[in-house]
Write a structure and sequence with these properties.
The complex is a heterodimer of chains A (184) and B (390). Chain A has 184 residues and is mostly helical. Chain A has nine helices and one strand, in the order αααααβαααα. In chain A, helix 3 crosses helix 4 and helix 8 crosses helix 9. Chain A is globular. Chain B has two domains: 197 residues, no CATH class; 160 residues, Immunoglobulin-like (Sandwich), CATH 2.60.40. In chain B, a hairpin with a 2-residue loop joins strand 2 and strand 3. Chain B is built from nine helices and 20 strands. Chain B has 390 residues and is of the alpha+beta class. Classes of the chains: A mainly alpha (184), B alpha+beta (390). Chains A and B meet through helix 4, helix 5, strand 1, helix 6 and helix 7 of A and strand 1, helix 1, helix 2, helix 3 and strand 19 of B.
């Protein structure tokens, strides 16, 4: 079923909407949640919450890219779920690495500094669009889709070291940009 | 008052088009299209120079007479491609652009399309590419491993007769394993501004052109030579490469090798090529071009021959580097070139890895250094046909 038809089902409050949405995107959303949670029960729970959240968002929302819309819901739920559980147990290698890398790009700023979060997101988007296609794909696969280094290396047919180098270079570049935007 | 910028949360809110694009299967050479495109435009310009000089050079004129198809002419294929070429001649017009698909060649490894544009009153020529997300061959979508552009498009052409010259778009694939019967092709071409669509100007995409036609790959498939090789590089004790298979036809040739994986440290240290000649004396050159799978390295011929970036060559002696498919053997030598890293840019990431920028070979090596290429092991022969007895 086309995305526009699925969105229409939500707008018409047709209960088959959730069935159609999960039929089309369960694999996609499962991968996103699994990348962080690494646990079948938590991942399934995340997916169920995704479909019901979508029911709450549409209407009034009418997303232009449905895959990204539901993927974003899943990602947010997975991160929330993960944070609730992380204090209780030690993180494994991949999860610890990706969280550590993202934490390195987080920072505090005072309310007097002009940049609101929305403007920082715009800066991130501008940074991403200026990257070469492969660098952009690597960055988004790592920090949005939460893929492992190994999976990204396989996707691009290069070594893991190559991916680590690429991410490190671009994280540093982005951090400099974000700090400069906040401090000016 | 302090506020927290949580990157993981903020990154989740980036533009959906960026997310969706990264959600698609990765096209192995999508990222290289632009850098490859820029390099190939230098070589395509050289091809046009060949024909500009034709009026005053009988050698080039004689060669030009062999070109029976537009695709052959633009890519300077010395073989007659007319048996494999389907004449389509379908025109679509949108947003002031008329695109006519003239010729198509299709086999298990290539889709090559010649396009004649008419840009009417446009001041600048758009950038054309095959939309492989929407293009279907025999009802299926295939992920290409590389793309090449040849001909008039992309050059800094401003005169009308230059802007509307024929362009050839070529996609290369792993092995589509197409049937011998008629194959339905649903071809989608995109036209955009010169800048790639994923820079800030999102209105860069101009129009989409759709063509439906049938073509048979039978002729070219029947002419394709496949040969198991199973040969280690002789005299190269440090080199673990084993050549496994050779595939070649009038358009292209490929050698698949095992013995190195994409995790191998050498992939960060060296680039490789196999050069030599076939039994007819034609120069041949196969460049290492990425992996088909984790441990299958491919060496490919190029539509534009073996020319280094920045090299000056004699246009009268311009030559492709594809072997003749009817040759009895290939005499080859493996070469390697060290990838040079900018030591000033080195920084340590962790116990295993450090980051460095690489240098362009053309910035470091000169022709007298053979552009940095060094032989590995001994020259060797791939026997394709048994030699007739005396």
């Amino acid at each position: 079923m086309e995305d526009t038809e699925i969105i229409e089902l939500f707008w018409n409050r047709d209960e088959t909407a959730i069935q159609e949405l999960s039929h089309k995107y369960s694999g996609y959303c499962y991968k996103i949640a699994w990348n962080l949670l690494q646990n079948h029960e938590d991942t399934e729970e995340c997916l169920n919450d995704t479909w019901f959240a979508a029911w709450g968002y549409m209407p009034p929302k009418r997303p232009s890219v449905l895959s990204a819309f539901v993927g974003r819901i899943t990602r947010g739920l997975a991160i929330d779920c993960f944070r609730k559980k992380q204090a209780a147990k030690r993180m494994d290698g991949h999860i610890a690495d990706v969280c550590g890398e993202m934490d390195a790009l987080s920072f505090s700023y005072t309310v007097e500094e002009r940049m609101a979060e929305k403007e920082l997101i715009t800066s991130i988007e501008r940074f991403l669009r200026k990257l070469p296609d492969a660098d952009r794909d690597i960055f988004i696969r790592r920090y949005w889709y939460l893929d492992s280094i190994k999976d990204i290396a396989k996707r691009h047919g290069v070594s893991q070291g190559c991916i680590k180098t690429n991410l490190c270079r671009n994280r540093k570049k982005l951090y400099r940009i974000l700090r400069r935007e906040v401090l000016i | 008052m302090k506020k927290e910028f949580d990157f993981s949360e903020a990154f989740g809110k980036i533009d959906e088009t960026l997310i969706a694009e990264a959600g698609k299967p990765w096209t192995a050479d999508r990222s290289r299209i632009l850098s490859l495109y820029r390099r190939k435009m230098v070589q395509a310009a050289a091809i046009l120079l060949v024909f500009a000089a034709a009026a005053g050079n009988s050698h080039v004129q004689a060669a030009a007479k062999k070109f029976t198809t537009k695709i052959g002419e633009i890519f300077c294929f010395s073989k007659d491609l007319s048996d494999y070429t389907e004449i389509i001649q379908q025109t679509q017009t949108k947003n002031g652009i008329a695109l006519t698909i003239n010729e198509v060649i299709l086999d298990d490894y290539s889709l090559i399309v010649s396009v004649k544009p008419d840009y009417e009153n446009r001041k600048e020529s758009p950038y054309l590419w095959i939309n492989e997300e929407k293009t279907l061959i025999n009802g299926q979508r295939y992920q290409s491993i590389s793309s090449t552009v040849g001909g008039g498009m992309g050059l800094e052409a401003s005169a009308d007769n230059e802007r509307n010259t024929e362009t050839v778009l070529a996609q290369e694939y792993d092995d589509m394993d197409l049937p011998d019967s008629e194959i339905a092709v649903h071809l989608v071409l995109d036209a955009g501004e010169r800048a790639p669509v994923f820079q800030e100007n999102h209105s860069a995409h101009i129009a989409e052109f759709v063509y439906d036609f049938t073509i048979t790959a039978e002729q070219l498939k029947a002419q394709t030579v496949q040969k198991e090789v199973n040969m280690a590089i002789p005299g190269a004790d440090d080199c673990s490469l084993t050549l496994k298979e050779l595939v070649m036809n009038d358009l292209r040739a490929r050698i698949v090798a095992s013995g190195v994986t994409w995790e191998d440290k050498r992939m960060n240290e060296y680039e490789w090529k196999l050069t030599g000649q076939d039994s007819f004396g034609n120069p041949v050159s196969f460049m290492s071009a990425g992996f088909l799978s984790e441990n299958e390295l491919r060496f490919e011929t190029s539509f534009f021959g073996d020319y280094e970036d920045g090299a000056v060559f004699d246009e009268d002696r311009f030559q492709m580097s594809v072997p003749d498919k009817n040759c009895a053997y290939l005499d080859l030598q493996l070469y390697q070139r060290k990838i040079l890293w900018d030591s000033d840019s080195a920084e340590k990431l962790d116990d295993e890895c450090y980051a460095q920028e690489s240098l362009e070979p053309s910035e470091v090596y000169a022709e007298e250094d053979h552009y940095g290429w060094e032989p590995v092991g001994d020259a060797f022969r791939i026997q394709i046909k048994e030699e007739s007895g005396n």
